[in-house]
Amino acid sequence: MSTITLQMHVYARRKWDGTPEYYISDNPSLSDASVFGRVCTSAPFTFEPPSDLNLTAIEIDGLEAEKTKALANYQSTVANINERLSKLMAICNEVTA
What we know:
Blueprint: E1 4-14, E2 20-25, H1 33-36, E3 38-47, H2 55-92
Antiparallel strand pairs: 1-2, 1-3
C-alpha cells in the first residue's frame, strides 16, 4: 500500500473538572462545540497502512457485533413482553375466595 497523508484537526475543550480534553478528526468543522470543543491546531498526518490490512474482515467483524447486539435487544424486548403477558394473564385468571 502507499503512504497516506490526511490533514487532521485537533479540537480542545474543558471537561467539567477543568482539565483539558482533546479530539482528533479529519473534519475541520465539527458543528457541536459543546461536544468537540474548538479547533486549536491542524497538522498533516502521514501513515502507511499495514500491507495485510483486510477491510472486508473488519466490516464483517463490525456487522457480526451489530447482529449480536440486535439479537440481545430483541431477546430482551421479547422477555419484557412475555413478562407483561404473564402478569396480565395472571390477573385474568385470579380466583376470588
